[in-house]
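Intended use. Records like the one below are meant for learning the mapping from a protein sequence to its folded structure. Do not use them to infer anything beyond what is encoded.
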Amino acid sequence: QVQLVESGGGLVQAGGSLRLSCAASGRTDSSDVIGWFRQAPGKERKFVAGIMWSGTRIYYVESVKGRFTISRDNARNTVYLQMNSLKPEDTAVYYCNLYPTPSLPWGQGTQVTVSS
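Structure written out for the chain above:
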């Protein structure tokens, strides 16, 4: 089964940037969408952005449009999330998984903390 490892989180000030990486141990179907999800303290995990391995479909939730950019490197089986103009409300643990049905084992996530 494909394993996912997230990295790239950290502590930044509001307005700053971070680039997250999701490394998969293998490839799933080319029509699968790899999504980024986030979970803030005390809240449920929510979808943020997703990209099909083929690159033909990209999805963002409204709150990150224009600030976050998702991309993928098929040769490295890696999906990236470039996050610019970060806000305190972006603070959360970020995870990746299949979207819309996250059927792979969840990784440990990567913590993103945005200070005001």
